[in-house]
Every structure is written in structure tokens, then in C-alpha cells.
Amino acid sequence: MSDRNDVFEIDLTRLDYHWVDQVRCVLTQGDALVDDKDSLRRAKAGLDVIKSEVAKKIRSDPEKYGLQKTTVDIIKDAVIVHPEVLAAQELVFNENYKVDMRQSMLNALSDRKAALENLVKLHGQQYFATPQTDEAGHEVLKEQSSSKLKAHLRKRREQKD
Fold first, then answer.
1. Which among 10, 15, 34, 41 has a CA at the least distance from the CA of 108?
2. Domain spans, the chain
3. What is the pTM of this model?
4. Residues 6+ positions from 158 with CB-CB distance below 8 Å
């Protein structure tokens, strides 16, 4: 899907195409969600490793990190603000955002499915059908439309005056 919203443009004359495309869209987004969740899990694991490594570095040389003493809370606070940890945390945030956006797309595709179902029902009830008439009926419709238009234009002229 090149544009996120393209898939939600429904051509009422191609409902059959959209039904078949629905399955492809859901499968594509579902597969991408699995990949995004895997990336998120890996980013979280990477963050844990980096936190552990940074904590080990800080414990081995606390003066290098500007610490006078090394209590559990002080080390925990120093780890949180360490640049490597912040970068890894940013990666986790980005991956989480991707998962949320992908889930949002799948939710929207579920709504699209419901919309397609309702459009097919309306189509089956001939909601989108155009009136069929013989030549005489066509002339009557044409005359009624013309007289309604004339009345509307007359009313507008009277309001302007």
C-alpha cells in the first residue's frame, strides 16, 4: 500500500475487487505487524543488555561518571540518563510506535470489511440502481426536472429582488 488511505477509497462499481483485496490487505498488514512486534521485542532486549553493560561500567569506575558513591538507586539513576541507554530507549519508542500504527491499520481494515459488507447488502437491495423507464416515462422525468429547476431559479430571482 503506497498511501495509507488509498486502500480506503472504495469504488462502488468494483466491490468484488475490494472483497478480494481485503484479504490481501489484512494478510500484508498482519505479516508486517508480526515483523514490527519482533523488532520491538529485540529492541527491548537490546535495551536491557545496554542497561546491564552501562551499570557494570559505572560500578567498575564510578568516578568516571561523576559519582561519589555507588548505591543501587544512584547507579540506577546514572544508567537511565546514560547516552547509550537513551539511544536504545528511543529505538524502543520508535518500534512501539510502529506496532501501534500497524495495529491501527488492522483495526481500520476491520472497519473497511464491515463497510464492504454493508455496501454489498445495499447493492443487493439495488440501492445504487438507476431508475429504468420507457420513452414516455423518460419524457415525464425530464419535464419534471425541468419544471423543478425553473421553479428553483424563479424563487432565487425573487429572493434577490
1. 10
2. 6-129, 133-161
3. 0.69
4. none
